[in-house]
Amino acid sequence: xxxxxxxxxxxxxxxxxxxxxxxxxxxxxxxxxxxxxxxxxxxxxxxxxxxxxxxxxxxxxxxxxxxxxxxxxxxxxxxxxxxxxxxxxxxxxxxxxxxxxxxxxxxxxxxxxxxxx
Length: 117
Known about the structure:
Helices cover 20% and strands 28% of the residues. By secondary structure, the chain is α+β, with helices and mostly antiparallel strands.
């Protein structure tokens, strides 16, 4: 069982790596600004995750650099959400557990359950 400190380290590492990526295009930002928790958006892995969004899966997009598993499927989280462990955790959400999601990178224990507080 991981401690709160372990989860805090995961969040800090994810947020730090996210800040080093290029921003989204104006068109992508327009789509994101109109998205709610029922909309998913696909972005290349080399792009910055917009504030308030979480990663729910990886996929392949032939418009992105590299070959396979080169894109993220992102969305605004709902009240409770299963997100990839590499996802940033938005303010106002807490990690409530770990799980496995075969749509996320790695094989086991690769997802976080988050909940809005």
